[in-house]
Amino acid sequence: MAAGALQGLKVLDLSRVLAGPWATQLLGDLGADVVKVERPGAGDDTRAWGPPWVKDAEGADSRQAAYFQCANRNKRSIAVDMATPEGQALLHELATRADVVVENFKVGGLAAYGLDYDSLKALNPRLIYCSITGFGQTGPYAERAGYDFLIQGLGGLMSLTGRPDGEDGAGPQKVGVALVDIMTGLYATIAVLAALNHRHASGEGQHIDLALLDVQVAALANQAASFLTTGTSPRRMGNAHPTIVPYQDFPTADGDMILAIGNDGQFSRFCSAAGHPEWATDDRFATNPARVAHREVLIPLMRQATVMRTTANWIALLETLAVPCGPINRLAEVFADPQVLARGLRIDLPHPAFGSVPGVANPMRLSASPVAYRQAPPTLGEHQAQVLADWLGHGSTRQA
Questions:
Q1: Confidence of residue 394 (pLDDT cuts 50, 70, 90)
Q2: Which of 16, 127, 212, 216: CA 20 to 30 A from 60?
Q3: Alpha helices of 107-178 — where are they, by DSSP H?
Q4: What would the pLDDT profile of 356-382 be if each residue is shown by its tens digit?
Q5: Which residue segments constitute the domains of the chain, with CATH numbers given?
Q6: β-pairing, 128-133 with 206-211?
Q7: What GO terms are given for molecular function (predicted)?
């Protein structure tokens, strides 16, 4: 097995739930030695966020939630009670050996245990310490707890997501996965890698202050740029695009499909395939700005045409014409898709308690230092003796 890009890096993971564990899983995938610190007897909150539960080797439900599996592979688990002097002493000792600490407690929440940045920096000046919170270390909301759903609302994402006013089912909607947590995990990983490079040049560690709200606002991307340019808040448009037409879902004879037409040539080829070449030369539809201005006329006309063929027939036809299109898959169809299969996006990892557990592959493909799946998500405290021996030496097996 090739050495991971981050082999030799020691990460002390004090985080739980999703944003922090997502970041530390990525670091582990890239070769870092990630030690997940969990509460004795309970562990990460997501261990109990079921059903569904992981199946054991006999096919029966275990008491470990499927949720926990998504963000905790390539980690070793130890159980430590940080509220006790013994637990604090052990974590201080581990922090002196760590390169990176990741935590997502409330602002100031770890100071009482001597596990805040200033306390650990005094023990290990080269430490990179990443704090993930809902609202950051400063500002009037800093003391508040932050959750993905709340941030999707507060940060504007839900105002952009959902059917437009006046349609059946209109109203703001959250995204179907905890996208803010996932994006925050990605930003945290990038920030840690940047801090590591800075340390390589300067010898200095640093504190990373990462907030879910900051990430959500940054990820508004073109919608934020449009608002800042015009002063007008974008409206919910369902599956339609604010500045590209046609770029949305359309009904077919047996379901729905997506058309993602990004230029006038693609539109012209679609029109010919749909039996309406005249649309491509109509002044109302010939260019993208014209189609945006006249979408209320064009889209109903297109819907009348798309229902004449099945989704599969449309895709087969339009792919030959280089017109971007695709199905709207359920997850069963996603994991049966030939491209998904070819890319190996489902993985199955051996597990000491459950036989094996399924998961989703890391999408990063590095040619010289590829991602490696060394370990399934751990059982609570599974690596206590191993980690203490590896990090602290002397064959230590003490509990805390």
A1: low
A2: 16
A3: 117-123, 148-154, 157-160
A4: 999 999 999 999 999 999 999 999 999
A5: 10-219+340-392 (3.40.50.10540), 247-329 (3.30.1540.10)
A6: parallel
A7: CoA-transferase activity
Alpha helices, H only, the chain:
19-29, 66-69, 85-97, 117-123, 148-154, 157-160, 179-202, 212-218, 221-230, 264-273, 288-293, 295-306, 311-320, 331-334, 338-342, 384-387
Q: Which residue of the set 44, 99, 116, 181 is catalytic? A: 181
Matching residue, tokens 């909607």: 173
* Beta bridge mates, 34: 11, 75
Whole-structure pTM over 0.85, yes or no? yes
Among 94, 160, 119, 47, which residue's Cα sits nearest to residue 396? 94
Smallest CA-to-CA distance from 76 within 25, 40, 126, 26 is with 25
Chain-wide mean pLDDT for the chain? 95
Are the C-beta atoms of residues 359 and 25 closer than 8 Å to each other?
no
